[in-house]
Structures are given as C-alpha cells and as structure tokens.
Amino acid sequence: MRKLKHIAEFLLVYLLILLALALGLDRASAFFGKLAVLIGPRLKVSNVARRNLSQVLPSLTEEDREVIVVRMWENIGRLAGEMPHWHRLSPQQLLSRVKMKDSAPQKRGKGIMFLSGHYGNWELFPHVLNALKIPNYMVYRPANNKYVDRLINKMRNTHLIAKGAAGMRQIIQLLRQDELVGMLFDQKVGNGVLIPFFGIEAKTVTAPGAFACKLGAELAIARIKRIHGAHFELEVKLLKISSEMDAVAVMIELNKQLEAWIIETPEQWFWLHKRW
Q1: pLDDT, average across residues 51-74
Q2: How many other C-beta atoms can be found within 10 angstroms of the C-beta atom of residue 103?
Q3: Which residues of 16-26 are buried (b: 16+ CB within 10 A; e: fewer)?
Q4: Is pLDDT above 90 for 110?
Q5: Over 180-244, what HEC string results?
Q6: How far is residue 272 from each of residues 72, 154, 181, 251, 268, measured CA to CA in Å?
Q7: Per-residue pLDDT for 28 more than 70?
Q8: β-pairing, 231-238 with 98-100?
Q9: What's the pLDDT tens digit per position in 187-240?
Q10: CA 245 from centroid of its chain's CA atoms
C-alpha cells in the first residue's frame, strides 16, 4: 500500500513538473504562486505558521500575520514552479536573474561552509554556484518517498550529502580538502543545543560552529532574496570568528543574522516548521 502511495505521489509531482516546464519559467513561477495562495492558507499546517508568528512577532496584528502567511505561500509556490527550470538554463541566463549584492561568492583556498535558511529561493544556491563555476556540495534530508527524492535531486544538479553520521564524516573530509559545503541550519534538530532564535531558545545544529572552531573552516551566511517574480538578489556575509568563540557562540551569531533577514522580509521565510 505504501509503495502504491509513493508511486501516486511521484506521478503527481512528475505531472506538476511537466506543467511547469510547459508554462516556461516566468509563467510557472506566477501560476504556482497563485495556486499555493489558493490552497496553502487553508491547510492545517498553516496554523503552525500562525502560531510561530504570534510567538516571535507578537507586535503584529492578526491581519498582518495573515498577510505574511499568504505571501509565504506565494513564495513557496513560486519556488516549486521555478525549480524544474534552473538546471536547464545556461549560466548566462541564470545569472541574469540573480543580482549580486557587493560581490559574487568565491572560494578562498580553504574549506568553507555556505550556510542559509529556508528563505527566499533556497533551492537556487547550487545553481548559482554552478553558474559561477564554483564546485559545491549540499547537505539535504532525503524525502520519505524515494521516487520523489530521486526526481527532486536530479533537478538540484549538485553533489548531495544526506544528513546523518556518514554525512558528517563526508563534510569533515570535504572541508579538509578545501571544498565548499552548503547547509540550511534553521530547522529544529532533535539532538541540537538550545540557542536563542528570536529571543526564544530553540534546538539548533552546532556542527557548522564546530567545523569553524576545530577545522578552521570559513563560514559564510547567505540568502537569495526574491526581488520580483523569478528575479533575485544574492547576499553573502563572511562570519568573523575570534579565537574566544566556541561552536555555540558561532551559532548565536548566525542566528542573529538570519533573524535580521527574516524581520526584513518575513514572508520569504518558511514559517511552517515547528521551530520552537
């Protein structure tokens, strides 16, 4: 029964991908954004977003929070509609849609962790790095449906590292080889450390901080902010790490930067996760 369910899910996702490709990038972005707005706010999971918003942004009115929920769904829908297209674009076509704030990311002769949250179009990171000819590896959580997982991973078009103990060993090896490893660090981790996020303690992964303190890896926090339609701005900040900082202190600084970005454009963050 589970296999039949997974096959049905795969077929649905595959048909949606074909629809997105038939529409073209810009129309797919707009169509899936509107579709998500029609469906998403009515789903039970949207109550998680509403609770999160009332908890960490209590000064907002209920109407303001609902606007954020609706616009969040539009961003998620647009991300889904855009995803089948990125690996099909030439580097020039892709980079024409991504404005670099300050300067483009670069490898600096040592291992670097490229960190972000579920913000803007987080799925675009490996494609931008590929277009800039920067080899990259991305940490991800495999989907429960192996058929859908393979389909999505093919679109990601990068070297993937599955979360887990084996994945951690691979990350250490890659950083020692001066490679770039990307990771989204903003979701709850069962064995994480309680670290303030929006002033409320939340279980947080500390591995990036440990890699910086113990391996000397550089840490960069980045976001791909949606400007309009399927056009974006990439911002990258290198974290300054002093010898007095430990892994927790590093993660506190990363959380602060992500908070600032979320407060700036709250509709671009994924509020559906039970973070607190």
Answers
A1: 97
A2: 7
A3: bbeebeebebe
A4: no
A5: EEEEECCCCCCCCEEEEECCEEEEECCHHHHHHHHHCCEEEEEEEEEEECCEEEEEEEECCCCCC
A6: 9, 25, 25, 22, 12
A7: yes
A8: parallel
A9: 888 788 999 999 999 999 999 999 999 888 999 999 999 999 999 999 999 998
A10: 26
The answer to whether 72 touches 269, Cβ cutoff 8 Å, is yes
**What tokens appear for 160 in the block?**
């993937």
As beta bridge partners, residue 112 has 180, 218
What does the alpha-carbon distance between residue 7 and residue 2 come to, in Å, rounded to a whole number?
9
Helix axes 46-56, 62-86, angle to 10 degrees: 120
Q: Which two tokens stand for residue 122?
A: 């987080």
Q: Is the pLDDT of residue 104 over 70?
A: no
* Predicted local distance difference test score (pLDDT) of residue 244: 83
On whether the pTM is more than 0.90, the answer is yes
**Phi then psi dihedrals of residue 188, to 5 deg:** -60, 135
**8 Å CB contact between 74 and 115:** no
- Which residue type, as a one-letter code, is found at position 260? A
Cβ neighbours, 10 Å, residue 197? 23
Half-sphere exposure of 201 (CA within 13 A, CB side): 4
**Residues β-bridged to residue 138:** 160, 182
- DSSP 8-class letter at 275: -
Section 122-145 average pLDDT: 95
Beta strands in 83-212 (DSSP E): 98-100, 112-116, 137-140, 159-162, 180-184, 193-197, 200-204
| Per-residue b or e along 43-80, where b marks 16 or more CB atoms closer than 10 Å to that residue's CB | eeebeebbebbeebbeeeeeeebbebbebbbbbbbbbb
